[in-house]
Amino acid sequence: MVLESIIKPITAEKKPWEMFFYGLIVASVGLFLGYWIFQDRADLVMVFLATFACIPLMYNSIKLEEQKDIDLESETSILKEHSKMIAFFSFLFLGTMVAYVIWFVVLPADMTATIFNQQVATLTQINSPIKAGVTGLATNFAYFNKLFFNNVKVMIFCILFSFFYGAGAIFILTWNASVVGAAMGGMIRVGIAKLGGVGFFGKAIAVTQLSTFSFMRYMIHGLPEMMAYMVAGLAGGIISVAVIRHDLTNEKFQKIMFDSSTLLLIAIGILLIAGLIEAFITPALFF
User: Fold this and answer.
1) pTM summary value
2) pLDDT tens per residue across span 61-94
3) How many helices (H) and strands (E) does the chain have?
4) CA–CA separation, 62 vs 16, rounded Å?
5) Which of 44, 54, 251, 276 has minimal CB crowding within 10 Å?
6) Nearest to 270 by CA among 131, 52, 86
7) Which 8-state DSSP code applies to residue 278?
8) Residue 138 in 3-state DSSP?
């Protein structure tokens, strides 16, 4: 009750940047509680705990957005209102991700290995095809096709999770935040280990450079991907709330379905852009 009461949907829409700090808090609390209570499975439990803290906020936000679908007349006005929710959940994702980065870097190596065990395993699976793609596929559309259809699959999961569980897409977003956090934290940690006897100010500058590089390496395409998943999750959630509220009269439901279809098209468009960035721009800049 404490974490879910910190911030309300209307407040989050007015001050979306506050969600960054909310993400920091829920991710950090979930991480330490998960390690303390379920040490061997902390890698998954911490994601579930952070998700539980965010579900009331997301569900109430989706209910608010569904009501806007009914109350507002033009699709342009509706999409403008939806953008406020996407903004504060983007800050939530960033706050959650930054929390995982910080703890990956500062915690002891053995503790980090336990807490981020599944995340590191996932990264190992992802990096193998990426490395192969950099030498042969990243310069053509074959690599892009692989990325795009994989991202569409994740987007479909977001829609289904939101439809069946109301706010289920937040689990996928939190999981992705933990994986990206582990990737960025690992890059920073390896870089720090190579500094050796460099002085304090030298290390501070190096850490800043490493953090900036790792953020750009993963977020230049990762943030658009997450936004696409949020938009798709919102679409599925709006339909779910409409079914729960029995807003299924012809006029209301048609309006809701039109808005949800528009959101899905926008999500696919964002994924298309993110895939092009990851396939062509990211390898050119960071490999």
Assistant:
1) 0.88
2) 888 887 887 777 787 888 888 888 888 889 999 9
3) 11, 0
4) 15
5) 251
6) 86
7) I
8) coil
13, amino acid identity: E
CA proximity to 189, closest of 283, 101, 110 = 101
Joined tokens for residue 211: 């953090």
Collapse the DSSP code of 52 into the 3-class scheme (helix H, G, I; strand E, B; otherwise coil) and give the result: helix
Type of residue at 76: T
Checking 255-263 for CB contacts under 8 A at 24+ apart, the result is 255/69, 255/70, 256/66, 256/69, 256/70, 258/75, 259/69, 259/75, 259/78, 259/79, 259/235, 260/235, 260/236, 261/235, 262/75, 262/79, 263/79, 263/82, 263/231, 263/232, 263/234, 263/235, 263/238
Nearest-angstrom CA–CA distance, 58 and 54: 6
Cα diameter, the chain: 70
Per-residue pLDDT tens over the stretch 185-222: 999 988 887 776 666 677 778 888 888 888 888 889 88
Kindly write down the DSSP assignment for every residue of 180-198, as one continuous string. HHHHHHHHHHHHHHTTTT-
- Contacts of residue 4, defined as CB under 8 A and 6 or more positions apart, other chains included, come to 53, 55, 56, 57
Is there a contact between 133 and 57 (Cβ–Cβ < 8 Å)?
A: no
